[in-house]
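re: ur question from the group chat, yeah i did fold both. here u go
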Amino acid sequence: MKKLMIIGAGGHGKVAADIAKNNGYEEIVFLDDKEDLTECGEYPVAGKGEEFRNYTCDMFVAVGNPSIRKKYQEEIEGAGKNIATLVHPNAIIGDNVKIGKGTVVMAGVVINSDSVIGKSCIINTCASIDHDNVVGDYAHISVGSHLAGTVHIGNNTWVGIGAVVNNNINVCNDCMIGAGAVVIRDIDTAGTYIGVPAKKMDFRQI
């Protein structure tokens, strides 16, 4: 029987479980650190996250926060466990696309040819990633966001819902691109960027 252990019993975990079921997993169990949590949707919560070492099945980290996702992914890798990659059957994946371990690609996503997606990324519902893109490890490309051709998104960067990144743009590590923002120039300084065109927020002026 094909079994998957998912760390993170929240909404993201529910979607990951649905994709896993479509990928042929017959048994799905969650781990989560919330006290008194016994189920996630139709699936049981068997214990806390650190207890993954007690299992020998495939594993997947379904946590939105990239630093926590990275922590668990590295611990699982260090323990020699197998990390699943989940791709929804209704996603469109082009030729020569590479997708890293622990990444989830959700329904309606389009990833065009020769793009490289890092490990433990979230490519969320109906996002599009055009040709020759590079998306770094632990990045999140949110619902309905769009990356044009030859875009480079850095590690741990979050592209918000409905955001657009123009072609031939580089976005550095550790950025937050706000919902609906439009990025038309390279971003080489970590921070939060909002607006049309996207500009770095100065929290001192809030």
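okk and heres the other one u asked abt
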Amino acid sequence: MKYKRILLKLSGESLMGEKNFGIDNKVINDYAEEIKQICDAKVEVAIVIGGGNIFRGVQAEHGGMDRTQGDYMGMLATMINSMALQAALDKLGMYTRLQSAIEMKEIAEPFIKRRAVRHLEKGRVVIFGAGTGSPYFTTDSAAALRAIEIDADVILKGTRVDGIYTADPEKDKNATKFETITFDEAYQRGLNVMDMTAFTLCKENDLPIIVFDMNQKGNLMKVVSGEKIGTLVTV
């Protein structure tokens, strides 16, 4: 395997499948199967999931709610998704740990870097919930921060498109895909890979990002094996 320890970033919206809200059990079970395959190949896996299928802090602000309150509500949404994925992985006989950036001792461990790394070394899947634990930071930022803290080899951003394009491929038929791109070029082109906080953290710590289609069966295994799937963002 090319990558020994990965941070897999999944969007909350991807868990909706064909639904308009919430969690599609088929999607989450399919993701669990894909994750199990790479764990069986001895890849150490940490995961961060967004909460956009349930609630977004930004959406609350647009509705007149205090942004801080909305962001904390969004963190709780990520915990719901994290628990759902943990349950799907447990059902496959995998060993998992859910760590929360906000204390929720009845359902999750607190985030402790050394403990998270030890779990990974023992072959357990570690899911990081509740973002960074602070408002005004997205789950992209949480993914970048946790990946750096656990010394991951790469961030794998699973999306519904197969990489980064010059424009939105769902809207522009002439959009062309990048095989590789630098952080600087992505920024100059205004490409929406991750938010700027996450992007800057990755660039400054020389942490590559691979954007790929998580919904294509077998893609996750191909990416960690080193196949040229999706788009690689590097320094």
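fwiw on the second one: The first strand starts at residue 5 and ends at 10. The chain has a mean pLDDT of 95. idk if thats what u expected
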